[in-house]
Amino acid sequence: QAVLTQPPSVSGAPGQRVIISCTGSTSNVGDGYDVQWYQQLPQTAPKLLIFSNDNRPSGVPERFSGSKSGTSASLAITGLQAEDEADYYCQSYDSSLSGVVFGGGTKLTVL
Amino acid sequence: EVQLVQSGAEVAQPGESLKISCETSGYDFTSHWVAWVRQIPGKGLEWMGAIYPIDSDTVSETIYSPSFQGQVTFSADTSISVAYLQWSSLTASDTAIYYCARQALNRNYFDFWGQGTLVPVSS
Fold it and tell me: Nearest CA to CA, how far is A50 from chain B (Å)?
């Protein structure tokens, strides 16, 4: 069972906005550790989408944004496009486990 | 351009040993941790641990997730900028895709990933 909790699936129509949540605890997200988000398109390697809670690497569209509050974080995708259909994973560091932790992943379906 | 290129798929039998590679380029190999991440088909990402490659005269630093401690071994060859993941005795439960990923400098996240190596273990 993943340390960070994500909904298994979300969906939205093209052009809509969707939000994916990531819930942690006081030993990871709530302990001040940054949250990252990765996008994994079908049959490909994960790709860094958001780092340090709300920063986009070069080349990531502004439609993707991240936020963090307390023991939770969120990834928002606006102007949904068919190409956004993928699995999304949140990631942080856990001080109790002394290691990197991932969420279980959320499958985004574009209707 | 930073690149991590992994070795090809390896079909193996239970009990066999195996070593897969992650060839890096485009950055100073001895300045970043290289992590290994497992993905069982249809499942999520699991951090296995990481290695900090140090020059050839010094043993590289490693950290293992408790779930993988004693099950796998990380190593690196700084002369060719390659990281390795190896098993001494595979089991069917090791069947997965294994990714290497560069850890961002002084950060706990992964900014560049290899393409993955599929390791099916079957008799």
Answer: 10
A51 and B44 in contact by Cβ < 8 A?
no
Dihedral-angle region of residue B13 (phi above 0 means left; psi in -120 to 50 means alpha; beta otherwise): beta
pLDDT tens by residue, A59-78: 999 999 999 999 999 999 99
> Where does the pLDDT of residue B67 fall: very low under 50, low under 70, confident under 90, or very high at 90 and above?
very high
Find the residue in B nearest to A46 (Cα).
B113
By CB atoms closer than 10 A (0-12, 13-18, 19+), residue B62 is: middle
Q: Which of B33, B109, B117 should we substitute to test contact with A (largest number of A Cβ atoms within 10 Å)?
A: B109
In tens, the pLDDT along B7-39 reads 999 899 999 999 999 999 999 999 999 999 999
